[in-house]
Amino acid sequence: MTSQLAGGPLVQLTGVNKWFGELHVLQDIDLSIDRGEVVVVIGPSGSGKSTLCRTINRLESIQQGEIRIDGEKLPEEGKALARLRSDVGMVFQSFNLFAHKTILENVTLAPTRVRRQGKGQAEARARELLERVGVAHQADKYPAQLSGGQQQRVAIARALAMDPKVILFDEPTSALDPEMINEVLDVMTSLAREGMTMVVVTHEMGFARRAANRVVFMDGGRIVEAADPETFFTAPRSDRARDFLSKILNH
């Protein structure tokens, strides 16, 4: 029975542990994410945020615990993993667009290959999505001809083209020049308002305050605390979160 029938969480991590050699990077992670929820994961560098994000579509494997997407256990490998992964969009720090393909081709590639959409249907949908993220006029260009902010908005359109159940954002603005950050965050904020389920690893506290339903604070591979943005930013419970916020909010 899927969680759609059961009304359970869309993403569920239970007792998740991961090691890189001796380093215990994720420690006993329990996290449930509901449909339409925007969860922003913050914390110091090396706290396990990106690793957590990347385990949700098994870009990183785990050694212990269980991850379920829409009630289905995340498979180890093979076609079942590819199928489930197509329901989980991913936007990376470094865009990961195909340099030798046009913007339109980048966005239509997965829907035609994985979802078996017809070329005409995929292109019409891609143009609609490029319009939505504000780069429709760039459809026939190549990634190198676009700014970083434009490339990242194309990457968001590419993720949306698969009609995912959830989109993971792994520090989507950290490779961008400061003036380009807001154009990407604005697109993400509008997606959040439209009810897209999102897991966002970011250093952008303004976005966390504005768009998150819940802020998850990590340190040392653990979830230290989780709360709604208002509570977290005005009255964090842990000394570690208070210390972290005092350092980043006073700059």
Automatic annotation (TrEMBL):
EC class of the enzyme, as a word: translocase
InterPro entries the record matches: AAA+_ATPase, ABC_ATPase_HisP-typ, ABC_transporter-like_ATP-bd, ABC_transporter-like_CS, MetN_ABC_transporter-like, P-loop_NTPase
Sorted UniProt keywords: Amino-acid transport, ATP-binding, Cell membrane, Membrane, Nucleotide-binding, Transport
Annotated membrane topology: Peripheral membrane protein
Keyword DNA repair: no
EC numbers, comma separated: 7.4.2.1
One annotated Gene Ontology cellular component of this protein: plasma membrane
Pfam family, one: ABC_tran
Domain ABC transporter intervals: 11-245
GO MF term (any one): ATP hydrolysis activity
Catalysis performed (reactions): a polar amino acid(out) + ATP + H2O = a polar amino acid(in) + ADP + phosphate + H(+)
Cross-referenced SMART domains: AAA
Localisation per UniProt entry: Cell membrane
Protein family according to the UniProt entry: Belongs to the ABC transporter superfamily.
Name of the molecule in the record: ABC-type polar-amino-acid transporter
Organism: Geodermatophilus dictyosporus
